[in-house]
Amino acid sequence: MIDLDAVTSGSRLALSRLLSEVENGTSAGKDALDRLFVRSGRAHLVGITGAPGTGKSSLVSCLAKVMRSRLNKTVAIVAIDPSSPFTGGAILGDRVRMRDLAGDPGVFIRSMASRGALGGLARATAAVVQVLDASGFDIVMVETVGAGQNEVDIARLAHTTIVVDSPGMGDDIQAIKAGILEIADILVINKADVPGAENTERALRANLDLGYTVRVNHDAAHRVTVTEEKDERTDWLPPILKTIATQNSGIEEVVDQIMAHREHLESTGEWKQRDRERLRAEVFAQLQETLMQRWEQQVSPARIDDALARVYERALSPAAAIETLINDSYNKN
Amino acid sequence: MGEKKIRVLIAKPGLDGHDRGAKVVARALRDAGMEVIYTGLRQSPEMIAEAALQEDVNVIGLSILSGAHLVLVPRVVDLVKANGQKDVLIFVGGIIPEEDVAELTSAGVTAIYGPGTSTSKVVEDIQAAFPAA
With helix as H, strand as E and coil as C, how does chain B read? Predict the structure, then answer.
């Protein structure tokens, strides 16, 4: 059994080893997760997502520095990069952009390979985050794999989701498509010194305006002013912020908004609600996995092969094959 | 979902700026199914040991072409052991003169790969050391 006191009292070796057990899904890891659960739920979970090359890692590094120096918070970072679909190997390169954080005992960085999961996170990311949360980090930042349009699992995991865009990534039609932009609590346009940043900002702002109530005022002199209306109690209008991570520019404002978003979540009760939704999803995800495992223990591999063979011959549909296999395993009991 | 992967840190200590060799090795290990954490150029021994600790790696590969290996490598080995990671395998690649090999080996380096070494040799050595993963 893993010694959790060492983990929660700040031993980095113990923490690091536990993270491996959890990532590998070992029984010791699962047992530790069980015991750590009561200590979790305190950290502010901040997700950072966006297309490859928009500057997520650099931005995370800058944000962590400000959170350390100005807010005096301890910060854990989980950075996910893709695994090869062919060999299962991975190059995890996010640390290259985070070298400025080296030597700070209040920062812990862990790289994870996605290991075949498709939603932008690894299957064990939620568990790894839970361990970091329970071991006392104030803020846990999760950087997803370079995400396209559908890698939106981060929104379920994080309290605050930051979507990073950069100039030249597509026009206003890309911006109104469903998916990644919808999950943003904060929108950041990084590389704001690159030509085209204004176009990116305009496209993002126009898209936001389609979804939020905007009041157009015409005054007596026919001047038009636009005010964005938000219900202070429920609605949060995602701010659009411009940064240049390589020059450390605009970072303070992003941290301000992360903190403002946290206050917003707490004052509206959404913090609790998001937490509940996350735990509910977690319970059902684990339930699915457990049921699958139990089912696999109950049905003989020969029966599965048999059913598959009939599917290959087009003699049995996948749905019918599943019915047969499930009935088999019930009849055995 | 029990899945164990060999985790390798590939790092370049010191000040030389040529990381092609390190990238070739990183790529070869990736293609052999390992998870390779690459940290980039100009790392201090402290940075390398810290990364190895946080990432809980099984193997550390150090690439040095600057000639400072007798200073940098033993320091990395000492820091890693001091952190409690006693079973980590540490190998060195780059330009290492024959007469320095013994000193590095006695410092705790498990293998030294000079120019012309096949990447499959590196892969095989690591796989032999961690057969379970």
Answer: CCCCCCEEEEECECCCCCCHHHHHHHHHHHHCCCEEEECCCCECHHHHHHHHHHHCCCEEEEEECCCCHHHHHHHHHHHHHHCCCCCCEEEEEECCCHHHHHHHHHHCCCEEECCCCCHHHHHHHHHHHCCCC
CATH number of the domain enclosing B85: 3.40.50.280
Residues 253-292 of A with CB under 8 A from B: 289
pLDDT in tens, A68-103: 999 999 999 999 999 998 999 999 999 999 999 999
Sign of CA dihedral A254, A239, A144, A43: positive
> Does B37 lie at the interface with A, CB-CB under 8 angstroms?
yes
Q: Tell me the average confidence (pLDDT) per consecutive run of 10 residues in chain B, 133 residues long.
A: 83 90 94 94 94 97 93 96 95 94 94 93 94 69
Residues A325 and A216 in one domain: no
Contact A115 B3 (CB under 8 A): yes
CB spacing of B50 vs A102 below 8 angstroms? yes
pTM of the model: 0.87
Cβ of B35 within 8 Å of Cβ of A289? The answer is no
The answer to whether the Cβ–Cβ distance between A96 and B43 falls below 8 Å is no
Interface predicted TM-score (ipTM) of this complex, two decimals:
0.92
Tell whether A46 and A24 lie within a shared domain: no
In A, minimum Cα distance to B44 occurs at A102
Domain range for residue A16? 1-37
- Asked if the C-beta of A140 comes within 8 angstroms of chain B's C-beta atoms, the answer is no
* The amino acid at A142: V
The predicted pLDDT at position A168 comes to: 79
Decide if A20 touches B, using CB distance below 8 A. Answer: yes
Please write the tens of the pLDDT for every residue from A169-208. Answer: 765 566 556 567 788 999 999 999 999 888 888 888 887 7
In a domain, B19, yes or no: yes
